[in-house]
Every structure is written in C-alpha cells, then in structure tokens.
Design goal:
Elements: H1 2-14, H2 21-48, H3 53-79, E1 84-89, E2 94-97, H4 99-105, H5 109-112, H6 117-120, H7 123-139, E3 143-150, E4 156-167, E5 173-182, H8 184-202, E6 206-210, E7 216-219, H9 221-227, H10 231-234, H11 239-243, H12 250-263, E8 265-273, E9 279-290, E10 296-305, H13 307-321, H14 331-348, E11 351-360, H15 362-369, H16 371-387, E12 394-399, E13 402-410, H17 413-428, E14 431-433, E15 436-438, E16 441-449, H18 456-472, E17 477-480, H19 483-505, E18 508-517, E19 523-534, E20 538-540, H20 542-552, H21 555-576, E21 582-586, H22 599-609, E22 617-621, H23 623-627, H24 631-642, E23 646-652, E24 668-673, H25 675-678, H26 684-696, E25 700-703, H27 709-718, E26 722-723, E27 732-733, H28 734-743
Parallel strand pairs: 16-17, 19-21, 21-22, 22-23, 23-24, 24-25, 25-26
Antiparallel strand pairs: 1-2, 1-5, 3-4, 4-5, 6-7, 6-10, 8-9, 9-10, 11-13, 11-16, 12-13, 14-15, 18-19, 18-26, 18-27, 19-20
Amino acid sequence: MHHRLLARQLQRLMGNDFLPDESWNSFLQLVSNYYYEVDLERGLLENALEVNSEELTSANAQLRAKAEHEKALLQSFMNSIPDLFFAKSMDGVYMACNQMFERAMGLTEKEIIGKTDAQLLSAERVLSASSIEKKVLGTNQQIVMEEWITHSDGSKHCLEMLRAPYYGVDGKPLGLIGIGRDITDRRKLEEQIRLSALVYQHTAEGMLVTDPSYQIIDINPACARMTGYALEEVRGKSPEEMFNSGRQNSEFYELMRETVLQTGSWSGEVWACRKNREIFAKSMVVNSILGDDGKVNGFVMLFSDITEKKQANDMISRQANYDSLTDLPNRSNFRERLKHEILQAERARSSVALLLIDLDHFKEINDTLGHLVGDVLLKEAALRISDCTRKSDTVARLGGDEFTVILSRMTDPKHVEVVAQKIIARLAEPFQLGDSVVYVSASVGITVYPQDALEAEELLKSADQAMYVAKRQGRNRFSYFTQGLQTAAQERSRLSSDLRTAILENQFYLNYQPILDLDTGHIHMAEALLRWDHPTRGIVMPGEFIPLAEETGLIMPIADWVFREAAKWAGRWNDLVPGGFQVCVNASPVQFRAEGVAFQKTWIQYLKDNAIPGKCIVIEITEGVLLDADTDALEILQNFHNADIKVALDDFGTGYSAYGSFAKFPIIKYLKIDKSFIHVRSNTALCEGIIMMAHKLGLQVIAECVEEQLQSEMLEKAGCDFVQGYLYSRPIVAEQLDAILRHGAMSR
C-alpha cells in the first residue's frame, strides 16, 4: 500500500515544479514508512516465531518476497521520473536511485547502492555535496540550488538540484533524497537571450521590431540615435510613415512587403529621413518573425547608416567619370555614353548626332592671361554649351579646349544645325574674366550615326575631321562630315541670311483670301497670308521659310510685321463693311514660349495706339498651342480675349486635341476645319459631327480650301458658318480686296 501511495506522490511531484515543504514532507514520509515498516514486520515475526524455525523461515521468505515486490514497484516508479533521483541514509550511504541518476554517474544501481560519495566522486565533488547535505539534515529544510556536473560521457550539464530530508513514522529523520532537473538547455537559451539583449542594446546597427501589420513595437538605442526618435514617438506607427524620405514611392514599399511575405526576407538600400528632416541612406535587411505555428508574428528590420560610404563612393565615381574643372563627363564617361546611345538608336532605328567643339584662339588667351583665367573661361564655356542642349543630351569635356555634345533620339536632322548655331552664337558672346573681356569663337564638327559611322571611335574620328574642315573654312562655324548634309546646311544658312535681309529690305507682302458667310454669301472675314518676294528666287511660299524662321528666332520680327500690316487694313475694312470685318492672322507656337510671351502686349498696344478695334482681329493658333498650354500661354490667350481679339483654332483635326478640352478654353471663337476633311467625300459624316460639336460648344466653324461646288453644298447642308477656298477666290492683294469690298462684289 505504501509503495502505491509513494508512486502516486512521485507522479504528482514530477508533473509540477519542485513542491512546497508540506508536500515534500508527505512524500518523504511515505519513503520512510516503507523502510521502517519492513524492518518492523521482520522484527515482530522473528519474536513471534522464534520457537518454530520452520514457520519463521517461511514467514521471512514471504516477507522478503513482499519487500522485493514492493521495492521493484517503487523502483519502476522512480525510473519513470525524467529527472535524476537518489536517496541516502543519515550517514550518506546511497539507498536508492533511478536510471537517470545511473546514466549521469556512468554506473549501475548495484555499483551505487550501499556506497558513499567518497567512494564514487572526486574529492572536490564530495566536499561540495557533503557541505550541502549536512545543512539539509542539520536544519531539516529542503535546499534548491543549481549545480554543474560532468556526466560519464564528458558532457557538462546544469542541474536544478533539490535536497530534502525524509523521516520515519516516528518523525525522526532517516536520511535525505535528491532530485536533479536538467536545465542545461534552458540556461543556454537564457544565455542566448541575454547575449541577444546585449547585442540589441549595444550594437551599432539600428534595429526595429514591428507587429504583423508593420506597426512599430520596439527600437534599439542605435535606431534612436540614427533617426532622432525615441521609442514613445514611434510606437504604434509604421516605419514608412515615420522615416519616409519621399525618394521611394508607395509601390517601392509594397514590393518590399510582398518580397518579405513570399521569401521571408528583403535586403537593399533605402533613403530615410531623420527627425530633423535630414535625409540619409541606409542599408537594410527585413526578416519575418515566425511563431511555432509557422505564422508571421512580426518583422525585424536591421539597418546601418551608409550615407558617408555612398558619398565616398559617389566622390570616387565622380572623380573617375567627371572632369574636375567643369564637372562635365570626362573622356572615359563620354565614350561609354556614346556607346550606350548607339545601342539605343540601333534598337529604335533612330539617329545620334555627335558634335565636336573646339574653342578658337584659346591658346592665345591661356598664354597671355594665364591658366587660371583660362580655367574660368573653360568653366563658363561649359555652362554656355550646356544651356544650348536638352536634358537628355550629353555635354562632355574631352580635355584642353575640346568639348563634345551627344544629341540622342534624333527625329529631325534640322535640330542638329539649330543646336550647333546656338552653341556658336553663345560662345561668340564676350567673356568677362575678372577685369578682362575676351572673345573666342568655336569650330564645330558634326557627324551622325548611322549615316557616317557605326562605331563610337569612328564617329569621333569623323567629327574630328569635320571640325578641322570648319577651322580651315575660317572658324566660327560648323561643318558636317557628310557632304550631302553639309550642302543642305549651307543652303539653310544662306536662306537664313536671306531672311534677315528680307526683314531689313521689306521683301515681304501679304495676300488676303476672302472668307464668305454661307448664310448671306457676303465677305465678312479674310485670312492674311504671308509671301516673300525673293530678289533671285522669286516668290517663296511660307512652307519653305517659316520653319527656318521659327528655328532661328526670326519668326518674331516677321510675325510683328505681318500683324501690323494686317491690322492696318483690318481697321480700314471694319469701318467700310456694315456689321464690321475681321482679318485672321496666324500666330506661331514659338511666340507662346517663354522667349516670345511679350508679343501680345506689343500687338494689343499697337491696336490701341492706332484706334483699331480688337474685334476686327482674329488670331489663328494650332492645336499644339492648346496641348502645351502653360501659365504663360493661357495668360496670352486671356489677354487677347480681354482686348476683344478673337481666337480661332486652325487646322482642326490634324492634331491630338480631345474635343472636350474646348470647354476649358472659352476664349476660342472659331474652329477651322482642315482641308483633309473637306476633300474626301467619305468624311461627310465626320464634318457634320465636327460642326455639330462646335455649335454645341458655342463655336462658329470655318471650312478652308473649298474648291468644288459639291463641297460647298455639303458644308451648307451640314450647317457650316463660313467658307474659304479657290471656289470663291484665290488669295489677292489688299488693294484688290479693298476694291471688292467697296463695290460689294463677289458673292456666291
């Protein structure tokens, strides 16, 4: 019975941590009772049966069998204990132990029972155990303490060792028992946690922990130092919210999170923002924190500040790839960029132009004024050349006074010439170098991929040859490597020169093409058309010289002359025709750019000075002006509207305007349908749709280039307001139109 109770007590004990004293006393009492009662039964039997030795022998045998059975039962329960267990007598002799204790000692139960520590352990272990056990027996209290022991296999283990006295039924101590729980793994884990905490607190890397929804739970001191934020300021907020520099968009962070969820980690470089709004670069690793069930419990982010490293790398890269004086790409960088542009052009089947620029007479300036002054000139020259190019182009310094320009994604060959002319003109302007004013010019060689060469080095050689041709021809000019392009450039150059002469010598004149009202058949409008009476070429049409005038900037004085000439006649005809008269004047898109925005003020002031009503002028613009309309362009159109000058949208349908966009521009009065819609009969429905749309928006429609009666009838049936074209009149000079208006001639 006692052994069953002991077994149940052992099971209950091993299912919990070490029990309180009263529970131990109960358990130990059971152990004591076992040994005491066996001895007692043996003594009683010996006294009662001493006269009958046979009966005594039989009773002893039964008692021994019972004792052996009870002992075996108790031993099986002790062996089921997962911890070390032993029992000692008052004099330190081992009385019982379990298999876990046997393994730790490297001995069998038979080798342990009946012996003392002095016979089994080292002197050092004996001294330590003896001191503790004397204290247990002397105070009748249990003691729990940690001990490191070495198993027989040489492995070291940490035990949480409990030693307690056990008593007989008379309450006297019979000895002590010991239970040792192996806590080696727990101590190692605790040590790892302690070391991790030390690392977390003292590492130079910033660490940040979030919950599964990326809300910050904790940050380490390094993170606080790097960002300037205390934990209380960031807890419960997302890292993106607190540290976003604005250099990465939301898609960047979404991709980062998707990568972490899919792979468990992400690493890369991120630009972050400190509390003081300073931007810094950090190298960051994000890892998932997984629970035992495999679910994501949160995320840990480790990062370091790499701003100085990046700055150092950028400096090394800049020194390797950029000219230290001008900060332009150097020769090595230029070659790589040229190769890249050639590859891009090859894929897109486009062109790349290369300009090689050499400053004329630079050596003389360097020799006379010194290298310091020469360096200042080179820096200023670099700025001027860069001002003449697009952001997508590359300006580089090859060394000395040689510069190059790579014009990428070439669509219009004329653009190359325009850039070359701008560069030559800008470099010809005086250089203020301290107290000295100096002048230089530039010789420019031009070559084009793929027409002239297919490789970067060959292109550079071709540009060099073209540049020397420009020098031999007198400097301060450009030369193409290809003769055909050179001839065309020379032709445009001559025409540009002739245009300047035409402005000075008043070689331009205007024709006027009448515009008829379809309802009345009367002329109430006319379009002013520019003509150039060239002294050797004869009459030159606008399509030949207007694009060149726009490229060279000569469109400004030409457009001013056209407006003034047309306005004079418009004022006269407005007084002559009942109901008033309007003259349409074309405005170039170039005039709506920054350099030409003042033109409308000059025109409006001219009307005021000459008492010409604004309502007799219609300014014709293209769809491109509306598409590219910035603040300046909108202000120009609004100023025309305020001056009662009407605006017409010319060549409607050839651009990319959305019909609904007209609602944004109430200043437009007329819509001019392009001739391509008039000449094709299958476009009848489209013409009708355009006219209907225009009327819905409050616009009047002018159909131009009407040449056949059927076209006129179709337009009249569709409700078109005005028509112009050869069917009614060819462009005529002002005096002819004046005579027609005076005599009321030319109606349908």
